[in-house]
# Entry
Amino acid sequence: MPTQVAYLGPKGTYAEQAAYALAKLEKLSQPVFMPYSGLRSVVEHLANKDCEAAVVPIENSVEGCVTTTLDSLWTYPDLSIQRALVIPIRHALISSGSMSEISEVLSHPQALAQCSEWLRSNLPNALQLPTNSTAEAVKMVLGSKFRAAIASKESEEISGVKNISYPINDVPGNCTRFVLLKRQRATESEMADLASFAFSLHSNTPGALLKALECIANLGLNMSRIESRPSKRELGEYIFFVDIDLTNKIIDIEKNLCPLLKAYCENISYFGSYKNSQANIL
# Structure
């Protein structure tokens, strides 16, 4: 049977490239790729059983965590991460006009932020306009001499636009980690590289977070990432998102760590243990 895979559209986004690569790595049966507008919409379609899998960005090496993805994972704790893929991000300035004519630059907020220094140096007076995706930005600049989009270099293949400058991202090593989500838990594997979970504390008191983190340290586990997000219930209350490095480790996080955390945590959401691959597909 076909496997419907949702991703941040329209066609031509970095998310689409990641979706194709992740579907191949996971050997999904007859994948059918479904673009949606907005990251929250992508996750909601999976949670509402409108598709079998979803691919979303979760972390960028320059701008940090993708907050919409983290918030969505906390909202839908039944979803789990099946696999992660890190892809290099090389932005290009795409337009129908020339550099001297550009007065507006459109792109996803993350892409604009990742090129902020280049824009400040080369187009200091251009108005920066956020869009839902890099591919959407390209569609919006078609035929315009004064508008440009920040998107992948492959966008120049679209009739009516050209690559004005490449690469324009501020950091040469810019990369984004994408994750493949499903509604069922990934099969625990000794080959897993990462485990991800999130928790909220019983109370915001001195040492409360330290006690939770000591549970991780006492098992000899190393955190490769920790992020905090507001709970959206009250000021000063946070959700903590943690990645555990499982390289050369054989441990069932859900069975061995989560029970220890329950003494200090109000809620715990375990997103699974999974492979984290590197790609060079751009």
